[in-house]
Amino acid sequence: KTAYEISRSDWSSDVCSSDLFPSHDIQLIRLLRGFNSPAPGCYTLRAFHRLPTDTVRRNDTASRSVRAIPALDLMVVNILEPASSICHPAGPTRVRVVVRNIGHTASGSFNLGYRLASGATQTQSLTRTIQPKAFDTITLATPINVLLGPDTLRIFVRNVSDPVPNNDTLVRYLVGSPP
């Protein structure tokens, strides 16, 4: 048997074990049912193997840094339109972005929106499925109105089940020029 522990600060929490496979067969560790999934973040995973006849213990443990992935984590990964941040023509411009689900469950409904520093926040409620590790290109219904001069465009995705808000917003700096 091989046992695994995962914790941020000590080795006394959540332990599980599985049948030992040859090391070349281990690609992914699937933790047993009942294992309390850790909150999203960085952890140390420690795997240790004990054989009754093995008297050398210093080589029985391996540690790796791992990242716990939340069930749902949506993020704006690219702003396709407005395409350029420098000398963008002033006036109405559509907003088209790429959203990615880096979680391990499919998305359902979420909000996607934007805010120009010179204007109000616009939010659109969407019901669409983005599978785990998948991307979706979305065009917002309300275009932005690029003004003459510098401005800051913040595009965000929001979902109440997304526990990682610090990757939900992408910023583009615009300079509106005469058409």
Q: Which class do the helix and strand fractions yield?
A: mainly beta
Radius of gyration: 23 Å
Query: What order do the SSEs take from the amino end to the carboxyl end, as H and E?
Result: EEEEEEEEEEEEEE
Query: Helix count?
Result: 0
Largest sheet: 5 strands, mixed
Strand order of the largest sheet: 6-14-13-9-10
Mean pLDDT: 76
Q: Termini separation (Å)?
A: 70 Å
| Share in helix | under 10%
Total strands: 14
Tell me the strand percentage band: over 45%
Inertia-based shape? elongated
Uncertain segments: 8-30
Mind sketching the topology for me?
Layout: E1 2-7, E2 15-18, E3 41-49, E4 61-68, E5 74-81, E6 88-89, E7 91-93, E8 96-101, E9 109-116, E10 121-127, E11 135-139, E12 144-146, E13 149-158, E14 169-177
Parallel strand pairs: 6-14
Antiparallel strand pairs: 1-2, 1-3, 3-4, 5-8, 7-12, 8-11, 9-10, 9-13, 13-14
What descriptors fit this protein?
single chain, 179 residues, mainly beta, 5-stranded mixed β-sheet
What does this structure look like?
There is one protein chain. The chain is mainly β and 179 residues long. The termini are far apart. It has strands spanning 2-7, 15-18, 41-49, 61-68, 74-81, 88-89, 91-93, 96-101, 109-116, 121-127, 135-139, 144-146, 149-158, 169-177. The chain contains no helices and 14 strands. The chain is 0% helix and 49% strand. It is elongated, with a radius of gyration of 23 Å.
